[in-house]
Amino acid sequence: MSSKMPIRSRPRRNRSSEAVRGLIRETSLSPSNFILPLFITEGKNISEPIEAMPGQSRLSVDRLVLKVKEARALGVMAVALFPKIEDRLKDSFAKESTNAKGLLPRAIRAAKDACPDVLVISDVAMDPYSSDGHDGLVKNGLVLNDETLPILAQMAICQAEAGADWIAPSDMMDGRVGYLRSALDEAGYTDRSILAYTAKYASAFYGPFRQALDSAPRAGDKKTYQMDPANRREAIREAQLDIKEGADVIMVKPAIAYLDVIRELKSRFAVPVAAYQVSGEYAMIKAAGDRGWLDADAAMMESLLSIRRAGADMTLTYFAVDASRILQS
Ligand code: PBG
After folding, report:
1. Measuring CA to CA, which residue among 266, 233, 230 is closest to residue 251?
2. I need a labelling partner for 252 at 20 to 30 A (CA). Which of 73, 259, 269, 315 fits?
3. Sign of the torsion formed by the C-alpha atoms of 120, 164, 65 and 255
4. Residue 288 phi, psi dihedral angles, 5° rounding
5. In the chain, what are the domain boundaries?
6. 313 near 273, Cβ under 8 Å?
7. What is the pLDDT of residue 1?
8. 253 is catalytic
9. Is 200 one of the catalytic residues?
10. Which residue's alpha carbon is nearest to atom 11 within ligand 1?
11. What pLDDT, in 10s, does the model give residues 24-48?
């Protein structure tokens, strides 16, 4: 190429000013696409900071209501609730998960009473309630599949009774979406959606969450039910099954390390795709920001934009409030 050769195509022209960049921008963020996960705990007027998640706290139900209102005022119209269950209430059958007067049902009710138009999503899995810290029933060191399903179904109905709009099975047992769909329908909850944790990987990025809820497995790991991070085709298979079983929305989790999986499911299927930017993803950005190693706000917005660009219709993120504040300013 001679040095005189004209450069006819100059991509930089399309980046030359904010006005031009605004015109050609392909992806944008909106608070209405965020789902805010919140941790709840017993007590009154309690906000216990979570060490590994700077800026996030375990909230008593009264404080939860304030947080939901704060989020709503910023345009965040969906929350996902996770209860920290007291140790003395945990057993191998996760019995507390079906207690209509338990922490989570009370929290769901309070949130719906205070903000009826905010969507409340509740997690279905045994781990926060299980003395084994696994998502399913443990027997002789094995996590049983079919024996877990009725427990999950009772849990889901308990949450639906309390007013949960979306039921979100995060347990990764086989057949649970269809099982929950039937159970909800039979109980009269045909109007409640299932947000399926479809491609949930056995990830190290859940560490801070397990610390927040004290829900880590007491023995072993979750690799016999959560997916191998090495696999993408398996996510397609999980999605096919979940959709056939009646999932309304399918989810990929974690998000940033699995953008290819988000894209894959988005391009193959017509159901909406959710992504979960998990606790470890949040913690990394916060920790580096706190040390002055990067601009945490900029990294937050970039990560959320990337997840959306990959194809997520909605994103569960602990940044929902902070990001919405920036979007509104
Ligand atoms: C429970 C559940 C987990 C997360 C969401 N639901 C933990 C796990 O499976 O061990 C992780 C969320 C996060 O890390 O932010 N099954």
Report:
1. 266
2. 73
3. negative
4. -65, -40
5. 29-328
6. yes
7. 57
8. yes
9. yes
10. 206
11. 999 999 999 999 999 999 999 999 9
DSSP-assigned states of every residue in 238-265 = HHHHHHHTT-SEEEEESSGGGHHHHHHH
User: DSSP secondary structure string, 255-309?
Assistant: SGGGHHHHHHHHHH-SS-EEEEE-HHHHHHHHHHHHTTSS-HHHHHHHHHHHHHH
SS3 at position 120: strand
Residue nearest to atom 14 of ligand 1 (CA): 206
Amino acid letter for position 212 = A
The set of protein residues with a Cβ atom below 6 angstroms from ligand 1 is 123, 125, 127, 135, 170, 206, 209-210, 278-279
Per-residue pLDDT tens digits for 247-294: 999 999 999 999 999 999 999 999 999 999 999 999 999 999 999 999
C-alpha 213 – ligand 1 centre gap (Å): 10
Instruction: Enter the tokens of residue 85.
Output: 């269950």
SS3 131: coil
Residue 71 DSSP SS3 = helix
- Residue 235: φ, ψ to 5°: -65, -35
Residues 6+ apart with CB under 8 A from 80: 35, 36, 37, 38, 121, 122, 123, 168, 316
DSSP H or E run through 315: strand 314-317
CA of 189 to the centre of ligand 1 (A): 25
Residue type, 328: Q
Residue 314 Cα to ligand 1 middle (Å):
17
Distance CA 280, CA 110 (A): 28
**Listed residue (209, 172, 201) closest to 84, CA to CA:** 209
Q: Is 261 exposed, middle or buried (0-12, 13-18, 19+ CB in 10 A)?
A: buried
In this prediction, residues 93-101 reach a mean pLDDT of 98
For 87-114, give the DSSP string.
Answer: GGG-BTT-GGGG-TTSHHHHHHHHHHHH
Q: Return all residues near 259 (Cβ < 8 A) that are at least 6 apart.
A: 306, 307, 310
DSSP H or E segment with residue 18 = helix 18-24
Protein residue with its CA nearest to atom 5 in ligand 1? 170
Give, in words, the CATH class of 29-328. alpha beta
